[in-house]
Amino acid sequence: MKLKTSKSAIKRIVKVSKNNKIILKKMSAQHRTKGKSKRTMREAMMNFDIARANMKTMKKLIPYK
Length: 65
What we know:
three-stranded antiparallel sheet; alpha+beta; Factor Xa Inhibitor
């Protein structure tokens, strides 16, 4: 039987690197940006690696990526 991919998880993931690290986008850069500082916006547009503690859970949510 095929496993279902979590659609909410797949929307947040940018890519899976060669070393099997999951790279996510930071939040709060999509809307309501007028009141946020330039520093906050610059940091929010960057990507980051997921923590090792959450890696196993995320692999279950996206089995085919």
